Amino acid sequence: MGRILGTRLLRLLATLFAVTFLSFIMTSLLPGDPVNAILGVDAPRDEATVERIREELGLNDPLPVRYVNWLGNAVTGDLGESYINRGQTVWGDTIVQRLPVTAQLAFMAIVIAVILAVPLGIIGAYRQGRWQDQTTSAGVQVALSVPNFITGIFLIWLFAVKLKWLPASNWNRISDKGIFENFKTAILPATALALTQMAIFSRLVRSDMIATLQENFVLSAKAKGLSDRYILFRHALRPSSLSLATIVGINFGALLGGTVVIETLFAIPGLGFRLINAINQRDILVIQGITVFVAVAYVLINTVVDLFYSVLDPRIRKS
Amino acid sequence: MSKRSLSKLLALLFSFAMIAAACGSDSSSDDDSSSDTTEGDGGGDTDADDTDDTIAEAGEEAEGDVDTEVVENEGERVYGGDIAVGLEAEAVGLRPWEDSCSSPCYNIMVTLYDKLMEQTVDGQYEPFLLESISSNEDFTEWVGVLRPGVVFHNGTPLTAQTLADMFPIQQTGAASAGPVTAANLAGVEATGELEVTYTLSQPNSAFPATLARAGVGMPFDPEAAAADPDGYSTNPIGTGPFMIESRDLDNETVVVRNPDYWGVDPDGNQLPFLDSISFRPIPDEGTRLDAVLSGTVDAMQTLRQGTIRDARAARDGGDDIALLEFQGNNVGGGQFNTLVPPYDDVRVRRGLTHMNSQENVIEALGGTGISLPGTQWFSPDSPWYSEKVAAAWPQFDFELGVSTLQEYVDDPERSDGKAVGEPIDVELSCPPDPTLIAAMQVLEQTWSASGLVNVELTNYDQQTHINYALGAENGFVGEHGAHCWRWSSEDDPSVGLTQGLAPPTAEIAEAAGIPDVVSPLNFANYFDGEVFGAAVASTQTADFDERYALFESIMLKIAEDVPIWYSGHTATAFVTAPDVQGLIGWHTPSGELGIGIPNVEGRWAEVWLAG
Predict the structure, then answer these.
(1) Which domains does chain A have, with CATH numbers?
(2) ipTM above threshold 0.95
(3) B544, exposed or middle or buried, with CB in 10 Å at 0-12, 13-18, 19+?
(4) Which residues of A touch B98 (CB under 8 A)?
(5) Over chain B (611 residues), what is each successive 10-residue block's mean pLDDT?
(6) Most A CBs within 10 Å: which of B27, B463, B468, B518, as the mutation test of the A interface?
(7) Do residue A31 and residue B463 have CB atoms under 8 angstroms apart?
(8) How far is C-alpha B519 from the geometric centre of its chain's CA atoms?
(9) How many domains does chain B have?
């Protein structure tokens, strides 16, 4: 276990260096200038002020110097301050503030996806090749094919505009408005995110379940006269869930950085919404901070999933 | 639960949802109450016939002009109520001296801060926080007298010394240093308890316009600002009708009634009427409109013709909403980089402009029946609008465009260095907005159809687009060719014209004998000594006729040299729930009707919730 952790740690450091270096270089080489965003598009321009702001933000330093300065601060936990929202720290005021929102969305999306995917996957496997399988497969194919923002637009139209059951946009914080009001603003975006995940998960459960149902122990259970439902849920589901557990973990990590479109569509103040604004405004340190955070989270979650996987299956641990 | 039961439940839920959607509050089945609710109250429809006591905007209304007229509010004022307003973007900060402010931000700022001056319905500037303002003969010294009894949200009184103490902060503020320089503002002195004297380094008859924008015109508490400049952004202190309650960046900014507000409406009612306003950034146009249609918010702003079209369709389909449309001087189109071949030749610019079918471009933008084609910086109902300029503007004439361009293509001395007969290369660039791309495709097809133009369409995000036009890296020449842009506003025209027509580079300024005058904001790089002289002259006189003649001469020259081209005037709108009243018919303290909602910047003090 110690060796696994050591290897993972080294891999994490290498990944972080690559991510921070590349994202810093790429965002800095973009043609836009954060000073333009600070001053406004057509605002009267005072060149002395422009120069002062550039100096204050360190934008006149050579790129390698800026990167090294940033890295030096980052290892002490200081990810800097937003160029645009002055006084807002990247860590405390941006990531820490917004992570709970994105994490909640990602978590809800995963939960919804798993709840839908497991029965669909089981039905598909149990009724392989029959109309139930074909119907769920077709449904899953549709869910995979439709981009989540299209799903989001449909959900807004149906549940907000037509039925007026749920709000169309924005976010009620649990701390301000309670869990029920929070749920009302979270359920539509989480569902929009969930459908693609559900499609992936159910395909996975179906294929693993089909393989499991052909194992000798299942045949043996059938020979004992156990009911199909008992065999499916008590004997076949657990060994068919290993791939699901892995992909759930990986996709949760991916969702932390993959909610940009849905957060923007629903105007949800998570990491993704902030990231897209930061890109548009060339708010380099915010872009950098969120990118690094998402990369760290992704690698850490993958590591945990791998460790969990090896706990679940002793054969992996031994290998 | 058995498999069959689960299937039945899912099928039932889906069916129920679809039936409920079909029967739900689709207001097509409602009576058309929106027009009744807003009739004659200044609140809503574009149907001006519904109002008896309409106060017309300055100038003549053009046929097809879709403005909601600025009219007096009617109906019983009601105190109380909370509303939510959907904005197209978040305000990056709420400090007038530091944070650049566009339309969404202004909606929040005007609830927290009052301006020293405001514009009235006829486009003139009138004192707001100031009680009076006057200048010396050559417009280099302006003396303003503040309204007595005004206090900041923290109880600090607003005095002339406050304005004087603000000035050092404004001189170095990211958002205010530019306006200070552009206005030639050299000093601010308290010459009495409430009397302030502004000293300018050069004449500026349009100085009151500077006092009507955030950079210089919104008083803040200089002591609190100096003590905690960053904190001021989340805890702004102004004299406005509302005070900050909470600021949750990218989600919600809540302002609540200022109980000590100085303002009253023309009937003597204490302002404001509402208890609170929640401003919510909703960047997606469709979601923002859906937010009003679903009741998630009570009002939303849009600067997109396509959204206005969709909102009109929703209203006409029976949705219970009101539209407050405004089409001011802001006009879209593009600019040619006149320092770069082939755009440095007027034959190319005129040829391409003659091949610009404004009607088709506006249709692609979703603005048919919404936007008026532009011929100048001013819309037909602006006091500065000129029929002469409209007649002089190169109208769509494909054959004339081809023949004009052919002259250049066949010229052995053509500036792009290509061989005679070879098509010109044009890079046509816009930000990646779907409607803008559609509009540019119309231009591309028309220009390409001439057989004389190779068009390359490019799309860059907003920051890159601006940066290419600014060209800070190449002496402000820029890296653009034919570049989408917008011009003008309801501000005094001299503000934009003196910046937009000044020498664009140090070399040109040197050659013109005015080495100290360089404007990076002359994005088209078009410089003509006489035209710039006329812009400067407009800051040295307050006589309307003189200024009108100067602006007309500038617009005529632009029509002749076409450094820019126009599509249509920018239509903007607030879409509101029918009970939101009083948004368009706000007043200055003297009882004059305000300018309305240019650039969808609302004034929220006189807004109330009916019934």
Answers:
(1) 2-75 (no CATH), 95-318 (1.10.3720.10)
(2) no
(3) exposed
(4) 86
(5) 44 43 37 30 33 35 59 89 96 92 93 97 94 96 98 98 98 91 95 98 96 95 95 94 96 97 96 98 96 98 92 94 90 95 98 96 88 92 94 97 97 97 97 88 96 95 85 86 92 92 94 90 95 96 96 98 94 95 94 93 96 74
(6) B463
(7) yes
(8) 21
(9) 1
